[in-house]
Design brief:
Chain lengths: 133, 133, 133, 133
C-alpha cells in the first residue's frame, strides 16, 4: 500500500538526488488506483513539468510498467499506434516508475519531470530506492 | 513567492494539526498562478477530497479570498448565481485560504479537504500560520 | 459584423469607464459565433474573472440576450432548472450584453467581470455605447 | 510583471507588423502563470487560429522557451515522444515566445497564429521587441 510515509520517503529521496544533480524537478507519487498521494515542485522547475510528472506516474500505474516501456507499443511500426492518446494522454518516456510491493503487487508509481529524460530517470530510481517495506 | 520551503512548512503544519484533531486530510498548496506546488494526501483521506482540496485552493487563488467568501456571490438570492460553474468549477466552501506576502501580494493558496468543513478551516489556518517571510 | 475596429472601440470604452469607477475588470468581446475577438485584463483584476467575463459574453451570444436574462429561465421555480449547466456552463448574471447591428442582427457580445455586478453592467453598457455602425 | 501597458504594446506592435506583411493573425499575451492578459483577432484571421495563438503562448510559458523548441523533445526519434499531449495539448511550432524581464524572470509569453509559421514568428518577434522595462 502506498502510505504517506512511503510517499514522503520517495519524494524526499528524489529531491535529494535532484539537488545533487543540480536540477529542479517535479516529483509525483500516485497510489495503485492512479490517485495523487504526494507531490512537490522544486523551486525553478518549469510549470509544464507538473503535468508531465503526474502523467508519467499515471502511465506507469495504468500499464504496470516503466513509463517508457509503453512507447514500445505505440512507436512508429509498433502494433498499437496511437495508444498514447488513450487514458487522457500518456507520457510514454522515461521518468515514471511503478512501485511494487515485495510480493509483486503494484501499489503505485512515481513520476519525475524537469530535467533531461536521463536525469529524470536517475532521480526516479533514487526515489524508488527509498521506498521500504 | 510561493517557495518550496514555504509550501513544505504549510503542509507540515497542516498535517500536524490534522493529526492532533485525529482527522485525515488532503493538503494542497498552489502558487499565485494557481499551479500545484506541494500536495499530501494523509493515509485514510477519501479519494474524492483530493480534487476538493486542490479546488478550494484554486478558488482562493482565482478570487484572492477565502474559498467560502465566493459563496456570498453565488448563494441563492446573491447577485451571481452559478458563478460556481466558472473556471472549471469552484469549491465555494471553507478550507481554502489565500497566502499573502507582507505587502499584500497574493503568492498562492492552500486548500484542505477531508474533515468537516470546520475542521478543514481550522487545519488550513494552522497551515497558513506556519508560512513565514 | 464584429470587426476589430468595433471590438477595439468597445474594449477601450469599457476600460475608460472602469478606470473612472476605479475598478479593474476583464473585458471580452466575442463575435456572433461566440469566438473570442478581443480581450483585456486590466492590472489588478482577479484571475477568476477572466473566465467569468468570457462566459458572460458567451451566455449573451448563445441566447441573444443580456446574460442575466437567462436566469429568468433557470432560477428556482422557473421552467428550465439547470439550464445554466448547458453549453459548458453559463454565467446567468449581469455583465454580458449582446451586440446588435442596426437591423437587429446579433453580431457578437461583450462581457465584463471584476467589479460588483452593478459595476460590471455599468461598464458593459459604456462599452456597448462605443460600438458604431 | 506582465502589465496591461506591456501587453498592449506587444499586441499593437504585432498587429502593425502583421499589417505590413498583409496577413491577419491572432495575437495572445499571457502572464507568467499562463493566464490570458490581452488578445486580438484581426479581421480575416481564421477561427481555428484563436486557440493556436493562445496554445503557442501557453507552450512558451509552460516550458519557458520558444514554442518550437518543445518539438526538439517530442519529434520522431527525440527522447520525449507524445510530450505534446501533456498539459491539455501543446503547440510545439513557431509563433510562441516567452517574455523575460531584464533579470531573466519569465513574466509571460505571446503567441501569434494566422500566417505561415515563418510569418507568425516574424510577427511575434516584432511584438516582443515592443515590450519595454
Amino acid at each position: 500500500m502506498m502510505t504517506t510515509r512511503r510517499a514522503d520517503d520517495i519524494v524526499a529521496a528524489a529531491r535529494a538526488r535532484a539537488a545533487e544533480l543540480g536540477v529542479a524537478v517535479n516529483a509525483a507519487v500516485l497510489d495503485g488506483g492512479g490517485h495523487l498521494k504526494t507531490f512537490c515542485r522544486m523551486d525553478g522547475a518549469v510549470l509544464g513539468s507538473i503535468d508531465v510528472a503526474i502523467r508519467k506516474a499515471r502511465t506507469a500505474v495504468l500499464f504496470a510498467c516503466r513509463s517508457e516501456a509503453v512507447w514500445e507499443y505505440c512507436a512508429p511500426g509498433a502494433p498499437a499506434p496511437a495508444l498514447e492518446l488513450s487514458n487522457g494522454g500518456l507520457a510514454p518516456f522515461a521518468g515514471g516508475l511503478p512501485v511494487l510491493a515485495p510480493d509483486g503487487t503494484l501499489i503505485g508509481a512515481l513520476g519525475i519531470s524537469g530535467g533531461t529524460v536521463d536525469q529524470d530517470l536517475d532521480i526516479a530510481k533514487a526515489g524508488l530506492a527509498a521506498c521500504t517495506f
